[in-house]
Amino acid sequence: MFYGAIVWDPWLIISQIVCLQCLYYLTLGLFMLVLVGTRVSRMSLVYFFDYSTIPASTVTGWCVIASILLSALAGAGYMLYLIERAKKCLDFSATLYTIHLFICIIYGGWPSSITWWVVNGTGVAVMTLLGGYLCRKRELREIPITRYRSNV
User: Fold this and answer.
1) Per the domain annotation, does 54 fall within a domain?
2) Where does the protein end up (predicted)?
Protein backbone atom coordinates (compact mmCIF):
# COMPACT_ATOMS: atom_id res chain seq x y z
CA MET A 1 0.00 0.00 0.00
CA PHE A 2 1.61 3.20 -1.18
CA TYR A 3 0.05 6.27 0.43
CA GLY A 4 2.29 8.96 -1.06
CA ALA A 5 1.56 10.84 -4.24
CA ILE A 6 -1.52 9.62 -6.05
CA VAL A 7 -0.64 7.96 -9.31
CA TRP A 8 -3.33 7.76 -11.99
CA ASP A 9 -3.35 4.17 -13.19
CA PRO A 10 -6.53 3.42 -15.16
CA TRP A 11 -5.55 -0.21 -15.79
CA LEU A 12 -5.25 -0.82 -12.06
CA ILE A 13 -8.65 0.77 -11.44
CA ILE A 14 -10.31 -1.23 -14.23
CA SER A 15 -8.74 -4.47 -13.01
CA GLN A 16 -9.88 -3.74 -9.45
CA ILE A 17 -13.44 -3.11 -10.68
CA VAL A 18 -13.45 -6.32 -12.74
CA CYS A 19 -12.02 -8.37 -9.86
CA LEU A 20 -14.47 -6.93 -7.34
CA GLN A 21 -17.41 -7.51 -9.71
CA CYS A 22 -16.36 -11.10 -10.40
CA LEU A 23 -15.83 -11.88 -6.71
CA TYR A 24 -19.20 -10.32 -5.87
CA TYR A 25 -21.03 -12.47 -8.43
CA LEU A 26 -19.15 -15.61 -7.40
CA THR A 27 -20.13 -15.00 -3.79
CA LEU A 28 -23.69 -14.15 -4.77
CA GLY A 29 -23.85 -17.38 -6.76
CA LEU A 30 -22.57 -19.38 -3.81
CA PHE A 31 -25.12 -17.87 -1.43
CA MET A 32 -27.89 -18.27 -4.00
CA LEU A 33 -26.94 -21.91 -4.49
CA VAL A 34 -27.04 -22.57 -0.75
CA LEU A 35 -30.09 -20.49 0.18
CA VAL A 36 -32.25 -20.39 -2.96
CA GLY A 37 -31.09 -23.56 -4.71
CA THR A 38 -32.53 -25.71 -1.95
CA ARG A 39 -35.96 -24.08 -2.38
CA VAL A 40 -36.42 -24.05 -6.16
CA SER A 41 -36.41 -26.84 -8.71
CA ARG A 42 -34.08 -25.07 -11.15
CA MET A 43 -31.61 -22.24 -10.55
CA SER A 44 -31.23 -19.63 -13.29
CA LEU A 45 -29.97 -16.12 -13.85
CA VAL A 46 -33.46 -14.83 -13.09
CA TYR A 47 -32.63 -14.89 -9.39
CA PHE A 48 -29.53 -12.78 -9.99
CA PHE A 49 -30.83 -10.12 -12.34
CA ASP A 50 -34.64 -9.99 -12.39
CA TYR A 51 -36.25 -7.61 -9.93
CA SER A 52 -39.41 -9.71 -9.74
CA THR A 53 -37.61 -12.48 -7.80
CA ILE A 54 -37.23 -10.30 -4.71
CA PRO A 55 -40.72 -10.26 -3.21
CA ALA A 56 -40.70 -9.86 0.55
CA SER A 57 -43.88 -11.95 0.72
CA THR A 58 -42.28 -15.35 0.00
CA VAL A 59 -39.61 -17.39 1.73
CA THR A 60 -37.70 -17.72 -1.54
CA GLY A 61 -37.74 -13.93 -1.89
CA TRP A 62 -36.25 -13.60 1.59
CA CYS A 63 -33.57 -16.11 0.63
CA VAL A 64 -32.69 -13.98 -2.40
CA ILE A 65 -32.60 -10.89 -0.18
CA ALA A 66 -30.34 -12.65 2.33
CA SER A 67 -28.03 -13.77 -0.50
CA ILE A 68 -27.69 -10.21 -1.78
CA LEU A 69 -26.99 -8.78 1.67
CA LEU A 70 -24.51 -11.52 2.58
CA SER A 71 -22.72 -10.87 -0.71
CA ALA A 72 -22.50 -7.19 0.25
CA LEU A 73 -20.86 -8.20 3.53
CA ALA A 74 -18.39 -10.37 1.64
CA GLY A 75 -17.79 -7.52 -0.81
CA ALA A 76 -16.70 -5.32 2.07
CA GLY A 77 -14.10 -7.93 2.96
CA TYR A 78 -12.97 -8.11 -0.66
CA MET A 79 -12.49 -4.34 -0.69
CA LEU A 80 -10.19 -4.64 2.29
CA TYR A 81 -7.75 -6.66 0.18
CA LEU A 82 -8.42 -5.30 -3.32
CA ILE A 83 -8.98 -1.60 -2.77
CA GLU A 84 -7.15 -1.04 0.53
CA ARG A 85 -8.19 2.61 0.89
CA ALA A 86 -11.17 3.76 2.94
CA LYS A 87 -11.74 6.84 0.79
CA LYS A 88 -12.20 4.67 -2.33
CA CYS A 89 -14.79 2.29 -0.87
CA LEU A 90 -17.79 4.42 -1.83
CA ASP A 91 -16.53 4.77 -5.40
CA PHE A 92 -15.97 1.06 -5.91
CA SER A 93 -19.18 -0.13 -4.23
CA ALA A 94 -21.26 2.43 -6.13
CA THR A 95 -19.58 1.32 -9.36
CA LEU A 96 -20.29 -2.34 -8.58
CA TYR A 97 -23.98 -1.72 -7.95
CA THR A 98 -24.29 0.64 -10.93
CA ILE A 99 -22.91 -2.08 -13.20
CA HIS A 100 -25.32 -4.51 -11.53
CA LEU A 101 -28.20 -2.09 -12.24
CA PHE A 102 -27.26 -1.92 -15.93
CA ILE A 103 -27.09 -5.71 -16.17
CA CYS A 104 -30.50 -5.96 -14.47
CA ILE A 105 -31.97 -3.42 -16.92
CA ILE A 106 -30.62 -5.38 -19.88
CA TYR A 107 -31.82 -8.69 -18.46
CA GLY A 108 -35.25 -7.90 -17.05
CA GLY A 109 -36.07 -4.25 -17.67
CA TRP A 110 -36.15 -1.29 -15.30
CA PRO A 111 -36.55 -2.48 -11.68
CA SER A 112 -39.99 -1.24 -10.68
CA SER A 113 -40.09 -3.04 -7.36
CA ILE A 114 -39.45 -0.91 -4.28
CA THR A 115 -38.07 -4.02 -2.57
CA TRP A 116 -35.33 -4.32 -5.21
CA TRP A 117 -34.26 -0.70 -4.65
CA VAL A 118 -34.30 -1.03 -0.85
CA VAL A 119 -32.30 -4.28 -0.89
CA ASN A 120 -29.69 -3.02 -3.33
CA GLY A 121 -29.49 0.39 -1.62
CA THR A 122 -28.89 -1.42 1.65
CA GLY A 123 -26.25 -3.53 -0.09
CA VAL A 124 -24.42 -0.40 -1.27
CA ALA A 125 -24.58 1.09 2.22
CA VAL A 126 -23.37 -2.10 3.92
CA MET A 127 -20.52 -2.61 1.47
CA THR A 128 -19.45 1.05 1.64
CA LEU A 129 -19.66 1.50 5.40
CA LEU A 130 -18.23 -1.86 6.43
CA GLY A 131 -15.54 -1.76 3.74
CA GLY A 132 -14.60 1.78 4.77
CA TYR A 133 -14.49 0.77 8.42
CA LEU A 134 -12.28 -2.25 7.74
CA CYS A 135 -9.93 -0.28 5.48
CA ARG A 136 -9.75 2.62 7.95
CA LYS A 137 -8.96 0.20 10.76
CA ARG A 138 -6.10 -1.24 8.70
CA GLU A 139 -4.85 2.22 7.71
CA LEU A 140 -4.71 3.34 11.34
CA ARG A 141 -2.68 0.40 12.62
CA GLU A 142 0.62 1.27 14.17
CA ILE A 143 3.65 0.75 12.02
CA PRO A 144 5.94 -1.73 13.77
CA ILE A 145 9.40 -0.32 14.24
CA THR A 146 12.17 -2.65 15.28
CA ARG A 147 15.22 -1.18 16.91
CA TYR A 148 18.50 -2.91 16.62
CA ARG A 149 21.10 -2.21 19.26
CA SER A 150 24.60 -2.10 18.09
CA ASN A 151 27.15 -3.87 20.25
CA VAL A 152 29.81 -1.23 19.83
Assistant:
1) yes
2) Golgi apparatus membrane
Under DSSP, the state recorded for 142 is: P
Cα–Cα distance between 81 and 77 in angstroms, integer?
Answer: 7
pLDDT digits (tens, 9 = 90+) for 44-64: 999 999 999 899 999 999 999
The DSSP secondary structure of 60-86, one letter per residue, reads HHHHHHHHHHHHHHHHHHHHHHHT--G
Structural domain contains residue 145: no
H or E element, residue 99: helix 89-108
The torsion angles phi and psi of 57, rounded to 5 degrees, stand at -95, -5
The answer to the question of residue 151 being in a domain is: no
Q: How many domains does the structure of the chain reveal?
A: 1
Q: What is the pLDDT of residues 91-109, one digit of tens each?
A: 999 999 999 999 999 998 9
* Alpha-carbon gap, residue 58 to 49, rounded angstroms: 18
SS3 9: coil
State the residue range of the domain holding 14: 10-137
